[in-house]
Amino acid sequence: MQAKEVEKIYSLSNLNLEGKDVEDLSNKFNIVIDFIEDIFDVDTENIKMTESIDAHKAVFRKDEAKESSSRDDALKNAPDREFGYFRLDWNL
To answer: Which chain positions lie within coiled-coil regions (predicted)?
Structure first.
């Protein structure tokens, strides 16, 4: 991951990079990405599954129809909006 990608991730996450070493963050991201790639290479062919989502019994609440938030309430904390919608800058 390059420094420019780290800057984009921080910007999209509304995080401040001020005072942070972007190259160091880039290196740390690369360590994590390399580790994840190593996990995909592990042979699990003969490993017995110890947990299964199928066995999990989740209790869900009943859906209840409620009045939606007003557009103004939904957008009141938006850092940027346009034409009554959240505005996202995809060109960061």
So the answer is: none
